[in-house]
Amino acid sequence: MRLAFLGTPDAAVPSLRALVAAGHDVEVVVTRPDRRRGRGTERSHSPVHEAADTLGIPVAFDVADLDAARVERGVVVAYGALVPAAVLATIPMLNVHFSLLPRWRGAAPVERAILAGDEETGVSVMSLEARLDTGPVHLMRRVGVDHKTVSQLTAELALLGAAAVVEVLASRELLAHPEPQSGEVTYAAKLLGENLHLVPEMTRDAFLRTVRLERAFTIIGGRRLKVLRAHALEVPIPPAGTVVIVEGDVALATSDAVVVLDEVQPEGTRAMSGAAWWQGARLTAATAQWA
User: Fold this and answer.
1) Along the chain (291 residues), what's the average pLDDT of each consecutive run of 10 residues?
2) DSSP single-letter state for residue 290
């Protein structure tokens, strides 16, 4: 089938490669514009742009460029922008969405599934509509969330989605008979800093789920500290907000647990163990507070 592919991040690359491997003729890839690298003038391609170059597929940065493309269908995976209704009126598109629709429509479905403590999530291959993630679903595949980090779960969903969209395109039945979404609708709003801030009022589960997003941080001794890995201890719980040293490990007291900082990253430096950070932080457990 002659296809257009719309995608941007690493999570979209497996679908692009799978479509090509399945024998589809991907005529053009549309991705988000190159981004400036650091503070200089150099710009870097998106992961999908890099993959398209490797595969020898032309790249465009504007959906309007599809007007000149002779394609039968489009495939969208984490493109990063809405596709105009005028384009969808001329090119039917499938969208690989990383959730079990209609749960977690929107920009951050993987992160929201983790934060909510969902036991399972998955991918939905749907017909794309101009409204946000409302189209009927051709195929759904499920996977356990377990204790995976956001990068681990996203990578798993990316492969699952790649296989699912190839399966849909190979089946006249699946392609022709999508089913309307059913169930409670929830929205996965983009994460803000407040969603990533670890605070003493959190429960153990909320703390650890937030850490699994791999961007969590707290403030200790007036300085921002990124928390990359942590685990809970079964010990007596001091007042929330207390810093505790347990057998050489640095731990924080939440509302219902004591959580060890296994790996952290102070501002402006590399990642390190919590114990190594504490040794250089020149703080004392008796006076340090986290907030």
Assistant:
1) 97 98 97 70 84 96 89 96 93 98 97 98 97 96 98 98 98 97 96 96 98 97 95 93 93 96 95 94 87 91
2) B
Nearest alpha carbon to residue 84 among 100, 67, 60:
67
- Architecture label for domain 2-188: 3-Layer(aba) Sandwich (3.40)
Residue type, 140: M
Residue 129, token pair as written in the block:
């509509």
- Indicate the CATH number for domain 193-281: 3.10.25.10
Nearest to 198 by CA among 277, 116, 291, 283: 291
Helix 47-55 × helix 13-21 angle, to 10°: 20
Q: How far apart are CA 130 and CA 139, in angstroms?
A: 20
Strand order of the β-sheet with 59-60 is: 59-60, 25-30, 2-7, 73-77, 93-97, 120-127, 137-144
- CA–CA distances in Å: residue 286 to residues 137, 245, 283: 56, 10, 9
pLDDT at 15: 98
Q: What does the alpha-carbon distance between residue 280 and residue 270 come to, in Å, rounded to a whole number?
A: 13
Chain Cα centroid distance, residue 277: 28
Task: Enumerate the domain spans of the chain.
Answer: 2-188, 193-281
Count of other CB atoms within 10 angstroms of residue 248 = 10
Sequence-distant (≥ 6) Cβ neighbours of residue 8 within 8 angstroms: 31, 32, 46, 47, 48, 78, 79, 80
